[in-house]
Structure formats: C-alpha cells, structure tokens
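Quick log. Single chain, no ligands specified.
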Amino acid sequence: MSKVLLMGSPNSGKSLLFNRLTGLHHKVANFPGITVDVSTGRLQHLPDRELIDFPGTYSLQAISADERVAVDYFERSLRDPDVSHVLCVIDATRLEKSLYFTLQVIRECTRHHKPVTVLANMIDVLDSHKLSLDVAQLAVAVQAPVLPVSARSGKGLEAVVTALQGERSLPAPGTTESLEPASDERLRITAHQLAQRFGASGDVLIRNQTRLDGIFLHSFTGGVAFFFIMYLLFQSIFTWAAPLMDAVETVLSTVADWVIPMIGNQTARDFTADALFGGIGAFLVFVPQIFILTFVIGLLEDSGYMARAALICHKPLRLFGLTGKSFIPMLSGVACAIPAIYAARAIDSPRKRLLTYMAIPLMPCSARLPVYTLLIAAFIPATTALGGLVGWQGLAMFAIYFFGMFCGLLVTALVSRTSKDHYNDLPFVLELPPYRLPSLKPLLRTCWNRSKHFVTKAGKIIFAVTVGVWILGYFPNFGADLGTSWLGYLGHVIEPLFAPLGLDWRYGVAILSSFLAREVFVGTLGTIFGIESADEQMAPLVEHIHNSGMTLGSGIALLVFFAIALQCVSTLAILAKESGSRALAVKMFAGYFLFAYAAALLAYQLTTALT
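-> predicted structure:
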C-alpha cells in the first residue's frame, strides 16, 4: 500500500483536512500542539492509499518534543519507497507563516525525488472577505502544484484526489532559482517575499481578531472573562448534566425492576442486582457529566480562546516555575491526564515540560468527576442563591477543582525552587490563532467518542473489580452478613489505615480498589452497599452514604484525598514513557499518596473541630 504524507504548520486546518479525506474523526482543535502523535487512515476515495497525518510543525529545525516527532518521522519517511506523495497544507490567510515550512518540505522532497502538492487551506475565509490568492503564480514560484481548498466546507477536495490519482510530479522550474541548495535563512527570506507578492492583505483578516483580543487580553476585562469562563465550565457540570443524569438513573432503575425478577437463580439474581446494577450502574449515572465537560472544553479549544487563556496565564504561571504553554496540557488534564501528558510535548523547555508532567496528575480529571459528584451530592445541599445564578453544588465543584489545580502549582513551585536547573530555558513564544466558530458536528462526535472511550476503558476495570468485590462480599455466607464475609475480613485488616479519617472498612476497601482507576471507587461502593441492602429496595448511592453514618469531616477528607492521590496505573505508565524515567513515576506515586493522606487528615481534623 502506497503512503501519502500530510504535513503542515499548527492551526493550518491540517487535522480537519485529514478527517475530510479519510472519514476518520480525530481530535481537531484551534491551538498549536493539540496533535501530538502521528495518525494514519485510508483515503476514502483511494482505499489503496494510506494518509499519514503529522503533528503541526513550524520548521524542520525542531524545538519542541512534538515537532521532533514530526521531523524524525518525516526524515525517515522520505527514505521509504512506499511513500508516493507529500501533501503540505498552508494557511491561505497567513501565508508567510506557512510558506517557510512549506519551502523546507519542498526542498527535502526534491532531494529525495518525492512529488509535493501544496494545499492552500481556508480559501473560504478569503472568499468571504472578497480577497484572493494567486495560486497559479505561487505554484510557479514554489515549483510545486498549489490547490485552493477548504477543509471546513470541503471545497477543492476533488482536485486533491485527482492530483493523487495522477501522481503529478514537480512542475518544470519557473523563473526562480531551484530551492534544493537553499539554506533555511534564504528560505525564510523567500517566504516573506512570496507572501508579499501573492498573499492576501492581512489588515482585513486581523481586524476582528484585534477587536476581540482587546477584550479577552485586556488587563482587566481579560482576567474577568477568564474567571467567568472557568466558572461556567465547572458550573455547567451540574446544571447542564443534571437532566441527563436523572434520565440515565431512571432508565437503569426501570431496566433493573424489569430484569431482576425474571432471573430464577438466587445467586445470579443477587449478582445482577448488586454487581451489575449496583456497581457498574452507579458509575454510568455520571457519564453525562463527562460528555458536558468535554463539550465545553472543546468549545474553548475550537474557538481559539485556549491560546488567549495560555497567554493570560503565562505571567502567573511563571511564579510557579511553569510557562503559559503549560496551561493547555494542564486544562486538558481536566478531561484526562494521558492526552494531557502527550500535549506537554508542545512545551519547548525540557525543564518546564518536566514540571508540567508533575502538575498534570493533580489536575481534576474526569475519572475523579464521579467521586466528586457523589460526595458533593451527599454533603452539599442542592440549593441555589442569587436567584438561581449560583448553585452551592456547582460552587463546591468549582472549589475542589481549583483546589487540585492549586496543589499542582504548589508542587511545581516547590520543585522549581529546590532543584537545580540543568536546562537553559527557551523564550515563551505563542501563536494566537484567529477566532473561529466551532464546528458543532465534529465537536459532538468527539464528545461522544470520548464518553464512549471512557466507559469502555473504565468499564473493563470496573467490571473486573466489581465482580471480585461481589465474590469477596457474597461468600462464604451468601450475602447474609457482609461483615463476616471475605471482604469484611480484608476490610478490617486495612481499616486502621483509614480510621484516622473517620472512615470504616467499607470505604477503605473502595479506596484500595480505586488505585487501579479512581472511578472504580463509585462502582465498589455501589457493590458493597448493594450486598449490604440486598433485602431492601434499591436506592441511589447517595442515600446509602447518608445511611452509612459518614460525617461531613470524612466526606471533605475523601474529597481532598482524591484531589491529590495519583490513583491511575495508565497515567503512571505514560509518565514513565514520556519522561524516560520510571523512578519519576514511582516517586510521584508515593509522594502524592503521602501528600494526599496528610492533607485529608488535616481537612478531617479542621472540619470536625469547626462542626
């Protein structure tokens, strides 16, 4: 199978074009460094061709880790005889920025005799402003075909397929000198000259962006807008997701009432009620919140606001040893720590990248969300203030999220001030992409895929754990007394560890099982309480927690513990791989556990004393 390489600079629309050509649905966002790995897919109209999408790159002289991924793979691919064509995407609205990298790609492809086609993307933006790009003369100047396309609307994609079918090679050189012997400095000058000759006027294109930046980057209104947007992000987790969560709970309860009586065998009936509906079902109720969280973050990414938020955060983050570019991986960690660690490749400075790795596990990821929601719903009243504008539960979620972020900043500040700096820091340089209206359909598809992936990935672990917990809790007395079951004996062994937090053995077992994955805590508790109240009517997990006698101090202690502890095996594995140090992952796991336990104990003592 022949291969086609897809290259381009960040924010050129390359990933959206990849989705258009392959029909796949990879992550698309409006910020440099979002694409952090090489993606592949077969072309829809040419199934015998494989399209390879590289991370967005500004230059073949790599600085950041994600650029190094692209450059190394590109250099190897040029020596691959199966590579038949190279597509290089440029932003037609910002020609000079894209042309420098494009000229480098054309030079290297010429050396290796690989045909290149340049795709001038976002031509629809030029059309909407009644501007034009002289693609014919530009093609002569760069000595490669230039096709005007729009990844958003699909305009011009037929010509791309035709070009790949014909395997057009480089056109005959025009009046310009060959690019093959040109140095990078010479190519930079050439890119500037070509942009001046053939590019559209930038004044019209940046006018709206400048007007909006005057609001979002203003010293006062920018800060107010930032905190307002962040508050809406966490408030929406409760307000928008509540109807969907109620619907899921109703459906599960209805299905349970219909299925369980149909099962004749007592053991099988207990397993279905306690392990499946009590354990896994308790976790599924919180999936709508994952969807809403992903949707709101996607809106911020696709609109271009993320880069502005990174710029706003650069100055305060410097106080903690980080950079504005750390903000994007850290906020991505609110969804999941694993892609956030990959996104940290976009950070140029190795030292600041390492500090960002240390901060990401403390970001309140979506795996913590079911635990937070459960405990907040159990101890914070579902009332509102200021005419319904402020919900106390949403405010509590806002507080615990920012507590985790503050702990991450505290750790990086301490490490950056106590460790020696072995690296020379690079200057902070950040591209501000244009503001764009998010594409709703790809965004909703991304949210659906993220939620589905979260359920399927966590579901396997939760199923295995809940089955194990159910077996230990059901035998040897067939659920007659949970305290004298195998699980009860195990729980009483570890109970002294969590007794200082006011937690009994049941919560100790749930915490222990959650070290595989945080969200397992909810499923384990659901299974335990399901066995415990097998003869009673099924009730929501919040009601079981109320009846268990847990105090407010213990609830706050659990929130604090889960905000800090590094309870994710997958995150530890990716940390070890990306940092190149297993010792770092082990130290972070042990250090964050001790930090979490001490902070939880302090929170318990303070809350108990005050209440």
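The longest helix spans residues 440-474.
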